[in-house]
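Q: A reviewer asked whether we had any structural model of the full assembly, not just the individual parts. We don't, so I'm hoping you can provide one. Inputs are below.
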Amino acid sequence: MAQTLEEVAKLAGVSRSTVSRVINDQPSVRDEVRERVWRVIRAQNYQPHQAARALVTRRTNVIGLIIPETVARLFTDPFFAQLIQGIAEVCNQRGYYLMLSLMMARMDRDAFYRRILHSGQLDGVLVASAPLDDPLIPRLEESVCPCVLVGRNPDHPNIPWVDVDNVTGARNLTEYLIGLGHRRVATITGPLNTIVGRERFEGYRQALAQAEIAYDDALVAAGDFTEDSGFRAMERLLHARPTAVFAASDAMSAGAMQALAQAGLRVPADVSVAGYDDAPIASLLDPPLTTVRQSAVELGKVAAETLIRLLENPDVPMPLQKLSTSLVIRDSTRQL
Amino acid sequence: MAQTLEEVAKLAGVSRSTVSRVINDQPSVRDEVRERVWRVIRAQNYQPHQAARALVTRRTNVIGLIIPETVARLFTDPFFAQLIQGIAEVCNQRGYYLMLSLMMARMDRDAFYRRILHSGQLDGVLVASAPLDDPLIPRLEESVCPCVLVGRNPDHPNIPWVDVDNVTGARNLTEYLIGLGHRRVATITGPLNTIVGRERFEGYRQALAQAEIAYDDALVAAGDFTEDSGFRAMERLLHARPTAVFAASDAMSAGAMQALAQAGLRVPADVSVAGYDDAPIASLLDPPLTTVRQSAVELGKVAAETLIRLLENPDVPMPLQKLSTSLVIRDSTRQL
DNA sequence: GTGAAAGCGCTAACAG
DNA sequence: CTGTTAGCGCTTTCAC
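A: Here is a predicted structure for the entire assembly that you could use as a starting point for your response.
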């Protein structure tokens, strides 16, 4: 097996440069020569050495996926598995490699970012689920590293992003609850330092305002998207006697339903519960959960495509994309 | 910001080599010089160029995680998210980067493997959940690329691996069911071309044999670890009238429980159900699921540590590891 | 169309 | 202890 261009060149009876031209699909090579070279390459199972190539072209064909996320969420939330699936699919198609960086809680963020951003081994990065105030974001804006945020950041409007239309999704769901006759609609929000948490909360408020229902702080509790936090938030909301609860994730809905059961309340007879994500557990809960469906796979694909287009056509301005959602009505909600 | 060793060297008033020595922590540098160089490096926020380094050292500090897995399973199974979490944690600690390769169903496996294995950008690879007959495995054995299988492959005993003790886990669980008085214990197996599917089935058979219960084909149906396949397998098992069912994954248990409910059978009053994995849904099912707990995070950590030790000390023989499991008894099983 | 030669940024002998 | 030098394998001028 030939390891270098030089060896392939010798076997094909041409120069190193010609082999390089063939590999890089440059037109200025006689068809007959091109054929001969390809035959040798295939016969020898030759693969160009990426590092050598990267050293001169300054491109690695590697994109990074940075997930600065607490452990708990990654564990329970299939969102990330699906997102990665979508990203990986596009990478495979387009000839890119995917480098995964999980930002763990206890590590030195600064060293981490430098290592990731300045090591020259990433052509660009995708940043998923970064808190709005994550120090990575300004650093990204200074650096020259092309990047796309999965989930926009209103404080940095110049960084390209793709997102799901969380406001509309949450508003539609809340409107649906109100349409069922509920007036005391509680919400368990996600962390309000994330765009997702904030926007789903915003959608909830918009629906209330639209229906001219006064906003009531007692009907709002914050969680962190995990089941456990949903359980605890629901306990805090009980005294406010909501007739419906919108939790900003299905996992939190699951926790909320357990808290309600523990308090002797039935779903949906006493309290309607709705979630967000349409995660696999949504249909398994008892009763099956009304929720908002979004396609994390699709989001991953669009994110990767956007980044790759940015890398390959830096001048063409990027259309930023907000994916739409759909309401999935199951049995956990009912007419008041 | 200095981009190259040369620039740092000039600023520090030393030669390129000295800077290189400082960066690579070689002892033969005067402390005073070392200090001066570090100061410049920090001030300039200098990071060595990985490609240049890799070109000469032949090491990239990147390890690959290859997951040749069908779409359905990645979506629903938190096993992978946890496995990745464990691997990423060790990579972060030990200064390695993680490259993720999802092997999608429709792609050209051959080209994929060559691209991954021969591009020279991976110091070693971790292979998770490969089917026993995956063409990657023999290819891996031929290639010089150090690798560790997550899940052993009995046909290739020479490839290092780490694994969970699936036989014992399944046997313990089945013994528990038998201990509750069940004689007609059905099983929904995983795919029998995976080591996991095979070993959990083997554990089931061992427990039956131990209790001198005759093995009955009518009490066995194969699934593919997904909820849906569990549902369909359970439908096929109904006519055999089992009093207990052991499904080789929690997701399949969930499907089985739905099929039972649809047939008008109650869990655990009419049929006991037990799963495997202790996935997040296990405790959310109604009733909460008796299952076998294994730590996918731990497995990921051990896998990454094993590979890294293999890379850094190729001569030291590796102790292969089988992680143990524990039985988690909840409400889906009861005395017959 | 094709080859010769330079050089990407780094490490690793080899001198001193 | 430190500097000089020679590549690592590739792409990319520049000649021809």
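A: Points you may want to mention in the reply: The first helix of chain B runs from residue 5 to 12. The CA atoms of residues 125 and 147 of chain B lie 5 Å apart.
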